[in-house]
Amino acid sequence: MKFPQKHTLEQIATIIDAEYVGTHDFPVLGMNEIHVVTPGDIVFVDHPKYYKAALKSAATIVLINKRVECPEGKALLISDDPFRDFNKLSKYFKPFINADKSIADSAIIGSNTIIQPNVFIGNNVTIGDNCLIHANVSIYDGTVIGNNVTIHSGTVLGADAFYYKNRPGYRDKLISSGNVVVEDNVDIGAACTIDRGVSASTTIGAGTKIDNQVQIGHDTIIGKKCLFASQVGIAGCVVVEDEVILWGQVGVKSGINIAKGTEIFAQSGLGHSTDENKKYFGSPATEARERFKEMAYIKRLPEIIKKIQ
């Protein structure tokens, strides 16, 4: 998330009541999670395991719970609870605005776009030309939809990220301030759920086709001309390159990369990144040809055991 205007390190420290290391006028342009940070961003870190990654990331302001040596060209915000203070900044710069009608006045809807009854369109949503939005679709604040997009009934775009910190006695929610971007010529089936990014965008690439009852997690980037069958579940922060096919009930682990042209057969569980233009099957998924060989060998085990007895 980029701020509407540049702020200073001192201003940010005042908002969250934190100490800072760096010049008072050090520029702060936004805040993001570590996988999408750019210079001028704040990134938060609250576990020693991830200190090094945060300090070496592209972010130039690190919100951290320990006083450490500040890398050259960067600044620190010292907090006893970076998770809490990252949430505080999210609320400050992108507060929740309740809806007072089914289609917000701030929504922009293109020409020849059809909005069926009982659709909810939130604040600052943009929908392009020649789209068809079927009944009972919910499009949360800030969603951007391109041209020639079809969305079927019961789909929700922009629900919060499934992201919690374990606290004594409860789980603390990380506030989502990102959005969903759907590019041109995308079809989205009925009862799909596409979560907004925590601080950036969850993106569906041009020409991608999504079947019914598909879940796509926060900050996942889907490439162009992908094909997802029913009941596919993709966790957060996954990169799916162009022309990937995921057949029914495929489950995908967070934080991995699915290379261009990958095909995952039905009911597979993918827990690792893939190679380009290869097919995978099984749970855990491996290359399909090798998995089918293994299954053939297993099928022959009774025959082999009889021969050696």
From TrEMBL:
Protein name according to UniProt: UDP-3-O-(3-hydroxymyristoyl)glucosamine N-acyltransferase
Residue ranges of every copy of the UDP-3-O-[3-hydroxymyristoyl] glucosamine N-acyltransferase non-repeat region domain listed in the record: 25-91
CDD domains associated with the record: LbH_LpxD
Stored InterPro entries: Hexapep (IPR001451), LpxD (IPR007691), Trimer_LpxA-like_sf (IPR011004), UDP_GlcNAc_AcTrfase_non-rep (IPR020573)
Gene3D superfamilies to which the protein is assigned, alphabetical: Hexapeptide repeat proteins, MurE/MurF, N-terminal domain
PANTHER family: UDP-3-O-ACYLGLUCOSAMINE N-ACYLTRANSFERASE, UDP-3-O-ACYLGLUCOSAMINE N-ACYLTRANSFERASE 1, MITOCHONDRIAL-RELATED
Listed EC numbers: 2.3.1.191
The keyword Lipid metabolism is assigned to this record: yes
Domain of life: Bacteria
Enzyme class, UniProt record, top EC level: transferase
Keywords: Acyltransferase, Lipid A biosynthesis, Lipid biosynthesis, Lipid metabolism, Repeat, Transferase
Single annotated GO MF: UDP-3-O-[(3R)-3-hydroxyacyl]-glucosamine N-acyltransferase activity
Organism expressing this protein natively: Pseudofulvibacter geojedonensis
Any Pfam family: Hexapep
